[in-house]
Amino acid sequence: MKLTIDLAWRYLRGRGARSMLTTLAVVLGVMLTFGLNGILPAMVDAFTRNLLSSAGKVDLTVTSTFNQPFKAEVVDRLLTVPQIDSASPGAQGTVPLPRDADAPADALAQLIVVGVDTGTIGELRDFPLAQGRMLVAGDNAAAVLNSDLAQQLALGVGDNLVLPAAGGTVRFRVVGLLSSATLPGSEQVFVTLPAAQQLFGLGARITQIEATLVPGADRSATERAVASALGPDYQVGGLSTESSLLATLEVANFAFNMFGIFALATAGFIIANSFRTVVAERRRDIGMLRAIGTSRRTVMGMFLAESLLQGIIGTALGILAGWGMAASFFTAMAPIYTSVMHFTVGGPKFTTTTWVTSILLGVGVTVVAAILPARAAGRVTPMEAMRPQLGEVYERQVGIRAWIGAGLLVFSLFGLVSGSSSLVGLGAVVFLIGIALVAPAVVNPIAAFASRPLETFFAREGAIARSNLQRNPGRSAVTVTAVMLGLASIVAMITMVTSIFAGFTSYLNKSLSADYLLIPQSIILAQGNVAAGPQLAERVRDVPGIGAVSSLRLAKARVDDGEVQVIGIDPANYLKVAAFDWNAGSSDAAVTQLASGRWVIANGIYASQHNLAIGQALQIDTPNGVRIYHLAGIGNDYLNAKLATLYTSQENLARDFNVTADLLLMANRTANADPAETLTRMQKVLADYPAFRLYESQSWLDEQMATFSQTIVIFDVLVAALALPSLLALVNTLAISVLARTREIGMLRAVGATRRQIRRMVMAESLLLSVIGTAFGAVAGLWLGYALVVAMGAVGWQMPYAFPWTGLLATVVVGIVFGVLAAIGPARSAAKLDVVAALHQE
Amino acid sequence: MTAIVEVSGLTKIYGSGAAQVTALDAVDLSVAEGEFVTVMGPSGCGKSTLLNLLGGLDTPTAGEISIDGHALAELPDDQLTELRRRRIGFVFQFFNLIPVLNATENASLPLRLDGVKDADARAGLWLERVGLADRMLNRPDQLSGGQQQRVAIARALSTEPALVLADEPTGNLDSKSAAEIGELLRQVSTKWGRSVLMVTHDLRIASFAQRLVLMRDGRIIDDLALDGSREAPRTALERSGLL
Q1: CB of B99 within 8 Å of any CB in chain A?
Q2: B57 touches chain A (CB under 8 A)
Q3: Would you say the ipTM is above 0.85?
Q4: Integer Cα distance of A65 and A563 in angstroms
């Protein structure tokens, strides 16, 4: 054993350059898996902690079914449920802000005042302080709020926040500023519970209880237990947004993980390739070892030990590099996240799973990749020792594998057209394997075809380069496959980013076809929203220059123990000012259908969470009892894309939910109306409804797109970060293919090839390989990208598949350019080779 | 004297049908302990095939081989490998040293494969005996051809084998180094008592052996004792019409 490892180590050191290049492949693969898995959990963590800070650690909220204040003793009843870990009473309400006469139309008009129980809230929520202190018991005139909100209100620590109250005004002294970010519509000010109770005139009553579950508790079982402990007067909720956003993040996580796996698969190919060459070159050494009494097993062991050493070194360096990558990612990205997405990210987080997976994959892939070459080495006969060195022995093992590959390709086609997301994904992976198997058989004809134009530029060398490729289709195929894997992952990622962008753009354009939007300031949490009576809509309709007007109304309902928001729309007018982004099988006809009875439209997230089919009956628990509705269609609008939502007619909403107030108004300008004049008139109407904010769609769209473009920049940076290792792998493979042929090149020089010819030959060969690899990679990448988009759709993030023309073109150009760049180094060193030394190269 | 090599009716046929080639045709041969035998003959006469079969590197079509009392045909691959490791030493035309190991490590390789503890010390002793006391830590690329072949001979002897098989050991050497290797192989038999079977084309080197076996078309056509004179092999070859 010691001898085996000793020999392995010596050989590894003995061929320094190549060992380094193959090890680099492992390093890059492990770096990606380890690094990305260090970045993503921290991102998800930051996301859940910061962006969803309104939910805090809260798993469960209890409110009155009739939105009435209730007694604080309910907390004790809630705590009798064994799954409840901790609970904290609170009182919450909205307070209008005094308005200056010259304030702009979109100035902040109201605040949400949240009274927290200082004794218990710490168990549920983080209050990351940027400045000052947190509320303490007895702080009856103190407030804490987010720094960004304070800035908007021109308040600092020590200043007074003046709020209107039942008896005049109340002053709160700002004692602390929080570092968390404020979501638009969720402008919260925290005060102590007694202060809030006094402000809202609640006496000793509260309006909500927030609670956390014991770790591992089953959510729906807990909800049932709570419901039976508290009775029908109370309702249990949680933030449904959280789960769908996390699902999206999980898909992203999966997609990113695929890159790590891809990089490692690429590394596997490079290592297999390298070991194949090494075995071929060492046949005589192996023959001698066999002749002097080394068993087959020991020979195999030697190669496996070599790969093991390489795997260990590569993995160790990869983990180091991955850590560096993650750390520098956070250093570079933190300011962008803080400024663009308003949340702070910490540092990289490496879980035990990440460690274990990275190490197992890194070492495992290396050893597995070496198994076949090692077996081939074990089969070398001692007779090889008697023969002169032949250089690389060329194998022609095409037959069966190519047919298996062709079979896999056909199978993968079925996956593509099946429409099922898991089959499409499986098909994409099968396709890659298929190509890898078919490659040795098709490299020759493709090289013959592709080299025709090449030979016009490289008249003599082109033909030699082509025959170099064709002579050893196995080796060429490995290079092509490595290039393919690298580029496929890039194209797939670009496809996804392009599709996300295209999806949002079309959501925005379709969902906001209205020219004006009147939105209450606190729409996002859909809690304590101020609604308007029908007269606002009428007044807007009467404004000269305004055409169609339609409104949204909102109610909460329960279906099968889950909470869902029900939006009431006006079937006659809705499509004039807004639109649905329909899933397959649904159309605008569904909206008309809403008018004909108890019909609903479900959005994508809700439909996929509950596996809904059109026409299906839904038992909806309304304030007036259980009602049977039927599903008319599945469609999304931008505002509610991430919230489980049902849409029905306003008539149904009035009859079954008692909701008649408008929450959101959409209005169109008539064709010949003057925009500026109409806006002024609209602002005049709105002045009487301070809780509403007027948005001109175009400016709102521009604002949203600007934010989104900034987010996309982050994706682009990620793609670039991921592309680099793939391209390095390409350089690596091509460099190895030149190194492996040192003797051959020496021979060519000996028989009279000029340095220039050698250089051009290596260039031509590399170009040919990268062209073929890039072509395969582009096809495989498009497929994988399509699979990712479909997979996103399956978890509710519907987006149209956008063909990444620009990205594809860029990838192809980059792939080919790198093919040439990759060849520069090897071509130069090949041309500089000392003929005698090259011929004696072992 | 005990026979280290005992061969009877040894036949090796390659290919089949029209392409059939009989490389060895019912060869009988016996090599005594400590005897230095050289095999000569034109290319394709079967001498390398004979050597490969004796070394257990290839299997015969018919006939029996016994090495140091072991019938090769009866040994499974593992035991054959072990026999090669312990009882047979190989010296190749191309030296076949591991490029990344130094002289001592190359010479001790079979011992280390066998798990012998003082492998390097024992290999070092053999390196001294073959005259490489000052080259023990050099790697093959730092040694001349003759020196590399000495390392290979030290490697072959390090396991104290009964038989040393040498396939054109001087084929890649200049005449001075070749003569030194010839002399060294003679010592292997006379001084250290190993049987040596050497295949060569070089008449001068052949004269170091005690016995000359001449082959043609897969058969032994002459088998005679040599007196150490330079002319003896030449005379024998001329008499058999091989020269």
Answers
A1: yes
A2: yes
A3: no
A4: 12
